[in-house]
C-alpha cells in the first residue's frame, strides 16, 4: 500500500496574481465562442470531391504583462515609452529590457513621450486585411515619436493620400476617451498644425490616379 | 566560422502543381506522395527505406486547421519509426528546413534526409489569408494598423526606391520577367490560372495594393506541396551519380520583427556601422549571403554565381535582394535592373522558374520550390521539367537559393554547385 506523501518544498509564486477591478467588454455580435464546429459541406457533381466547412470561433486573452503600462497609457491618452538607464536609448514600441548587448538585458524605465512625431517612411494602401477593408485607402506611416530610437507604424489622417511626405511633422491624436480600448488603434497621426502640403507634382498625380478607384471600390463593400 | 565538414548533396525533388483551389492533389498527404513518386521517376534507385530523417516545412497552423499536420503526412507515407520534426520560420520556413536537413547530414548523424513542405492558403478567403499571414507581424503594434505584409513592404520599398533611384517601372520589369518565365513552367500557378504574358504597362495599370506596390508586383497565395532529398555524397554517388549538386555554402541570419526597430539597432551598428540597414535594406540577407559566400569561396557574386532562385514576394523585394546579395550597389542598382541582367538571357538570371510572383508562394513549400528549380537547372533537367528550353540557364555551374521571412526578419542563402 502506498504511503501518503507530504510535499514540503512548495514552489514559490513568481509574483502575486493581479486583482482585476476594472473590466470592459466590447465584443462584437457574432463572436459566440462555439469552438470548432462543422457547419456545412459541398460535393462535386461527379461525387469525387468534397469540401467541408469548419467554423473556428475562439476568444484569446493577450496578457500584456510587463508591457501593460503602454496599453493602459493609451486608455489615458498617453504614449508611454521606455528608456534604458545605462545607455539612454528610448523606445516606442517599448522594450522592457535594453537591446544593447553591452547593457546585458538591463531593465528599462517608463517615460511619458511627447505627442509629436516625424514621418520616417510611408505608403498608401489600397488593399488590406479583412478587418480594415472598409477604411481604405489608408495612409500608413512609420513615424518616430519624440527621441525614440525606433519608428512605430500607425495611420495618418487629415490629409489627402497623395500629400503625405517624408520627414513631415505630426501630432498624435487620440480617440475620445469613451471609445478607447487600450490598443494602438486608440490613436492615429495627423499633420502638425503648422504643416501645409506641397503643390501637386508627378508622383502625387500618380498616387491620386491609383487611389481614385479604391474610393469607388470601398463604396461597393457591404 | 563554420566550414563544410562533410559534403551535403541534393539528389532530387519535385513539387505538386501550385494552385489556389482544387489542384488534383488536394490532400496534403496525397500531394506529398505524388511529389515523392515524381522524384522516383527521376531517380528510380531512391527508396523510401533509405531515408533516416524527415524534416517537415510548414508555416501556419491557421491555414491547416490541424495541429501537427506533418504527422498526417508522415504516417501516410508509411514512415512510422523514422525520426521526424517540423521547422517553422515564417516565409523562410523552407530555407530553414533545408538548413536543418543540411546540418543533420553535415554532422554525420544522418545520411539521407527527406524534406516535405506545404501550405494550403485557400482554406480561407484571400483577405482573411492576408490577415493570417500578418499575424507573423507583432500583432500588439502592427496588425490592426495597416495590417498586411504588402503594406509593410510598400513602406520599406517606397523609401528604398527613392534612395536608390529605382522607379515603379523598373520593379515592374521584374514582375514581368518572373510571371512571363512562369509561362514556361506547367506547374506554376501563373501558368495554370492567369495564363498570359504581361507587359510593364499591365503591371503599372494593375490595382493599387499599397503604393508603390500594385497587384502584379505581388506574389500569389497558393496551395502546394514540395519534396526534396538532402544526403551525404556517398549516397548521392550511389543513387544519382550524374545529376547531384552540392550545397557548398549556406547562411542563415535574423533581423527585427518590426521593420521600424531596425533604425539605430546596436546589433547591426556593430556589424555594419551606423545608418544600416535603415528601414530599407535586408540586413539579414546581406549577412546570411556573406556567410554562404565565405563558406563557398564566392569572391565576386556576379561573376562567381551563374543564376538564382530568390524570394520575390514582391517585385520590389527582388530588387532589394539584388542589392543585399551584393549584385549591385546604390549607384548601380537602377541600371542593373534596366539592363535586364537578371533575365534568362542576362549574365545572372534570377527566377527562371517563375519565382513566387509566377510559380506561387505556398509558404512552407516555397523555399523548397526555389531549391528544386535551382537543382533542375544545375542537373540539366529543365528540358524535361519546363515546357521549352526558353527558361534554361545555359551551362550553369553555380546557383544561389534565397528564402526570406517577415519583413526581412529571417533570411537564408545557399550556394549550390553542379557536381
Describe this structure in words.
With 222 residues, chain A is of the alpha+beta class. Chain A starts with 34 loop residues before the first strand and ends with a helix. Chain A is flat, with a radius of gyration of 24 Å. Chain A has a domain at 65-219. The relative contact order of chain A is 0.12. The longest helix of chain A is centred in the last third of the chain and has 18 residues, at 202-219. Chain A has a 5-stranded antiparallel β-sheet, with no helix packed on it. Chain A has a 3-stranded antiparallel β-sheet with strand order 4-3-5. Chain A has a two-stranded antiparallel ribbon with strand order 1-2. Chain A contains 2 helices and 10 strands; from the N terminus they run E-E-H-E-E-E-E-E-E-E-E-H. In chain A, 12% of the residues lie in helices and 27% in strands. Chain A has helices at 68-75, 202-219, and strands spanning 35-43, 50-57, 80-83, 90-91, 109-112, 116-125, 138-145, 152-155, 169-174, 187-191. Chain B is globular and about 55 Å long. In chain B, 39% of the residues lie in helices and 17% in strands. Chain B starts with 7 loop residues before the first strand and ends with a strand. Chain B has 18 helices and 11 strands. In chain B, the strands form 2 sheets. A 9-stranded mixed β-sheet of chain B has the order 3-2-4-7-1-8-11-10-9. Chain B has 419 residues and is of the alpha/beta class. Chain B has helices at residues 28-42, 61-64, 70-76, 93-106, 126-134, 149-164, 168-182, 189-192, 200-205, 233-239, 266-272, 283-296, 301-304, 315-324, 333-338, 355-358, 363-378, 382-385, and strands spanning 8-15, 53-58, 84-87, 112-120, 208-210, 213-214, 223-232, 245-254, 307-309, 398-405, 410-418. In chain B, helix 1 packs across helix 3 (70-76) and helix 7 (168-182) crosses helix 14. Chain B has a domain at 8-124 and 222-232: Peroxisomal Thiolase, Chain A, domain 1. Chains A and B meet through strand 6, strand 7, strand 8 and helix 2 of A and helix 5, helix 6, strand 5 and strand 6 of B.
Amino acid at each position: 500500500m502506498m504511503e501518503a506523501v507530504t510535499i514540503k518544498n512548495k514552489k514559490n509564486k513568481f509574483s502575486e496574481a493581479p486583482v482585476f477591478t476594472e473590466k470592459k467588454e466590447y465584443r462584437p455580435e457574432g463572436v459566440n465562442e462555439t469552438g470548432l464546429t462543422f457547419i456545412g459541406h459541398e460535393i462535386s457533381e461527379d461525387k469525387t470531391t468534397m469540401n467541408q466547412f469548419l467554423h473556428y470561433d475562439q476568444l484569446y486573452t493577450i496578457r500584456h504583462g510587463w508591457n501593460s503600462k503602454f496599453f493602459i497609457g493609451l486608455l489615458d491618452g498617453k504614449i508611454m515609452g521606455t528608456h534604458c538607464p545605462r545607455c539612454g536609448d528610448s523606445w516606442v514600441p517599448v522594450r522592457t529590457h535594453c537591446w544593447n548587448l553591452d547593457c546585458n538585458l538591463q531593465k528599462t524605465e517608463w517615460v511619458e513621450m511627447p505627442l509629436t512625431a516625424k514621418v520616417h517612411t510611408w505608403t498608401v494602401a489600397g488593399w488590406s486585411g479583412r478587418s480594415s477593408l472598409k477604411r481604405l485607402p489608408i495612409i500608413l506611416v512609420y513615424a518616430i515619436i519624440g527621441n525614440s530610437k525606433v519608428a512605430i507604424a500607425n495611420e495618418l489622417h487629415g490629409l489627402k493620400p497623395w500629400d503625405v511626405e517624408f520627414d513631415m511633422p505630426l501630432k498624435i491624436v487620440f480617440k475620445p476617451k469613451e471609445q478607447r480600448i487600450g490598443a494602438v488603434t486608440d490613436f492615429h497621426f495627423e499633420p502638425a498644425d503648422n504643416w501645409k502640403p506641397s503643390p501637386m507634382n508627378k508622383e502625387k498625380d500618380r498616387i491620386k490616379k491609383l487611389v481614385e478607384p479604391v474610393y469607388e471600390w470601398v463604396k461597393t463593400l457591404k | 566560422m563554420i566550414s563544410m565538414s562533410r559534403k551535403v548533396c541534393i539528389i532530387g525533388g519535385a513539387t505538386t502543381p501550385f494552385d489556389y483551389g482544387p489542384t488534383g492533389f488536394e490532400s496534403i498527404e496525397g500531394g506529398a506522395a505524388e511529389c515523392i513518386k515524381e522524384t522516383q521517376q527521376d531517380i528510380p534507385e531512391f527508396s523510401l527505406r533509405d531515408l533516416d530523417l524527415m524534416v517537415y516545412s510548414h508555416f501556419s497552423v491557421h491555414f491547416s486547421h490541424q495541429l501537427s499536420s506533418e504527422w498526417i503526412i508522415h504516417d501516410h507515407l508509411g514512415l512510422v519509426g523514422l525520426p521526424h520534426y517540423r521547422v517553422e520560420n515564417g516565409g523562410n520556413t523552407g530555407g530553414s528546413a533545408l538548413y536543418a536537413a543540411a546540418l543533420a547530414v553535415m554532422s554525420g548523424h544522418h545520411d539521407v534526409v527527406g524534406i516535405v513542405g506545404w501550405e494550403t492558403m485557400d482554406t480561407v478567403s484571400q483577405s482573411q489569408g492576408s490577415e493570417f499571414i500578418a499575424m507573423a507581424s507583432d500583432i500588439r503594434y502592427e496588425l490592426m494598423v495597416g495590417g498586411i505584409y504588402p503594406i509593410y513592404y510598400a513602406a520599406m520599398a517606397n523609401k528604398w526606391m527613392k534612395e536608390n533611384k529605382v522607379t515603379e517601372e523598373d520593379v515592374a520589369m521584374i514582375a514581368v520577367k518572373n510571371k512571363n518565365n512562369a509561362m514556361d513552367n506547367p506547374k506554376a500557378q501563373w501558368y495554370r490560372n492567369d495564363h498570359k504574358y504581361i507587359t510593364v504597362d499591365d503591371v503599372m495599370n494593375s490595382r493599387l495594393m499599397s503604393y508603390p506596390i500594385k497587384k502584379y508586383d505581388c506574389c500569389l497565395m497558393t496551395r502546394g506541396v514540395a519534396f526534396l532529398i538532402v544526403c551525404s555524397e556517398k549516397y548521392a554517388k550511389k543513387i544519382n551519380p550524374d545529376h547531384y549538386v552540392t550545397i557548398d555554402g549556406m547562411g542563415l541570419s535574423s533581423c527585427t520583427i518590426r521593420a521600424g526597430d531596425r533604425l539605430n539597432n546596436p546589433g547591426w551598428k556593430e556589424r555594419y556601422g551606423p545608418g544600416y540597414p535603415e528601414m530599407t535594406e535586408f540586413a539579414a540577407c546581406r549577412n546570411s549571403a556573406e556567410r554562404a559566400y565565405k563558406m563557398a569561396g564566392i569572391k565576386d557574386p556576379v561573376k562567381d554565381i551563374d543564376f538564382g532562385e530568390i524570394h520575390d514576394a514582391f517585385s520590389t523585394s527582388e530588387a532589394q535582394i539584388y542589392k543585399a546579395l551584393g549584385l549591385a550597389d546604390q549607384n548601380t542598382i537602377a541600371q542593373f535592373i534596366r539592363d535586364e541582367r537578371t533575365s534568362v538571357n542576362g549574365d545572372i538570371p534570377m527566377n527562371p522558374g517563375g519565382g513566387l510572383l509566377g510559380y506561387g508562394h505556398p509558404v512552407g513549400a516555397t523555399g523548397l520550390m526555389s531549391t528544386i528549380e535551382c537543382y533542375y537547372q544545375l542537373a540539366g533537367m529543365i528540358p524535361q521539367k519546363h515546357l521549352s528550353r526558353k527558361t534554361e540557364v545555359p551551362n550553369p555551374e553555380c546557383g544561389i537559393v534565397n528564402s526570406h521571412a517577415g519583413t526581412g526578419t529571417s533570411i537564408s542563402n545557399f550556394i549550390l554547385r553542379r557536381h
